[in-house]
Amino acid sequence: MQRKPAHVATIRKDDFYVPTLQVLRDLGGSASIEEIEEKLIDRFGFTQADLDATYPTSGDNIITDKMSWARSYLKFPGFVANDSRGVWVLTEAGRLAVDQPLETLRQRIRSAKAARRAEQLKAKASSLVLDPAEEEADEAVAGWSDLLLAKLQSIEPAAFERLCQRLLREHGFTRVEVTGKSGDGGIDGQGVLRVNLVSFHVLFQCKRYKGSVGASTIRDFRGAMQGRADKGLVITTGTFTPDARREATRDGAPAIDLIDGEALCDLLREVGLGVVVRPVTTYEISVDQAFFDEV
C-alpha cells in the first residue's frame, strides 16, 4: 500500500542515523553513496512515489536529501568519514555507536556539533558567508567540499552552466558550447572529447541541485540526445538516486555518465577552479634528553 506524501514529509534525518551506520557495517565498513542509499531504500521500503516526493519550495527530493543530512551529521562525532573520493567509511567510533540507542547518538551529535561550532567561531576558520535563509547549511559544513558545494548551489543557474563549460574545457573537451535552450529535453550544452585518435560528440546537462536527480531526468535527457550525440553527461551539485544510476547504464540504451557533487568538487580541485590548494609543512619537535645529560 502506497504511503501518502505527507508521511514522507515527517521523515527526519535522525531516522537515518542508526540505519546508515548499520548499512555501512553490513557492507564491510565502507560504501559509496549509491550503495548506502540503495540499502536504506530497501530497508525502509520506500516506494517510487516516496522517492519522487519533493520539497514544495526548493524542489529537492525529500528522502535522499535527509539521507545526505544524516551522513553529514554522523561526521561530527567521527562516526563516519569520507576522506576518499565518493567513499564513506565506518570508523571505530561508529562501530561502537551502531548498537547505542538513538537518543544517545542524538546527544553525542549535538555535543560534537556544538564543540565544532565553538572552534570555528574562535578560529574564524571559514571566510565563506553562507545564506542565512538556509536553516541548517552552516551547521553541516564539515570540510572544503561542503563549503564548495554550498557556494556552487548559491550561484545563478547560468553561472553554473558557464562553470561546467570551463571545467569540461580544462579536462580536455573542445568546441564546448552552452546552449541553454528551453524545451530541449534538458540539454544545456555540447562539446567534443578526443581520446587518442577517436573523437566523441557529447551532450551535457547541468543540474544545480541540493537533493537527488531521479531516473525520470535521465530518461528525458537520453530521449533528447537520441541520434544527436555519441555520449551523454549529467553534472549535478547533488546526488543521483539508485534508480537514476541504473537508468544511466541500462542495457540496450546509450550509456550516460554521471558526475555528482563529490566528484564535481574533486574535478574542480584537480584543475584549480574555485579551489586554492596550498601545501602545508609540519614539523615534529621533541626534546633531546641525552643532550642535556651531557652538558
Topology overview:
Blueprint: H1 5-9, H2 17-26, E1 30-32, H3 33-44, H4 48-52, H5 62-75, E2 80-81, E3 87-90, H6 92-97, H7 102-123, H8 144-152, H9 157-170, E4 173-178, E5 189-195, E6 198-207, E7 212-213, H10 215-225, E8 231-236, E9 239-240, H11 242-248, E10 256-259, H12 261-271, H13 289-293
Parallel strand pairs: 6-8, 7-9, 8-10
Antiparallel strand pairs: 1-3, 2-3, 4-5, 5-6
Helix pairs in contact: 2-3, 10-11
Keyphrases for this structure?
Trna Endonuclease, Chain: A, domain 1; 5-stranded mixed beta sheet; 2 domains; alpha/beta; disordered N terminus; 295 residues; 44% helix; 3-stranded antiparallel beta sheet; 13 helices
Overall average pLDDT: 82
Biggest sheet strand order reads 4-5-6-8-10
User: What is the ordering of alpha helices and beta strands?
Assistant: HHEHHHEEHHHHEEEEHEEHEHH
Low-confidence stretches at least 5 residues in length (pLDDT < 50)?
1-6, 125-142
> Major β-sheet, in short?
5 strands, mixed
The share of residues in helices is 40-55%
Total number of beta strands: 10
Distance between the termini: 84 Å
Number of helices: 13
Give the class from helix and strand content and strand pairing: alpha/beta
In the residues, how many domains can be counted? 2
What share of the residues does DSSP label as strand, in percent? 15-25%
Q: What Rg do the Cα atoms give?
A: 22 Å
Shape: globular
